[in-house]
Request: fold
Amino acid sequence: MAMDEDLTAFLNTSDFTVDAAIGGNTYPCIFDNGYFEIAIGEVGVESNQPTAYMPDVDVAAASVVEGSTVTINSVAYKVVGIKPDGTGMTILVLEAP
Reply:
């Protein structure tokens, strides 16, 4: 069950959010391109996993589905995962071109 709190304070674009362009509209999101390493035996594989955190209502309004395109900072990403977190926010797992 999603929380009913106003999430506007977390998405103030003058602080730490960026615009995500989806289907001709823009929505505020918290973008992360976190580094991670996966150990395979004694060898590690390094990569980044871009994600965008958006309010559930914006994800629904933008009709985001797996395969949708989300443009952030002039880079067009493909949505490869959609994970509502139960707090009113959804994590979009993105794939770089």
Q: What stands out?
A: The chain has a mean pLDDT of 87. Residues 56-61 form the longest helix (6 residues). The first strand starts at residue 18 and ends at 22. The CA atoms of residues 2 and 86 lie 5 Å apart.
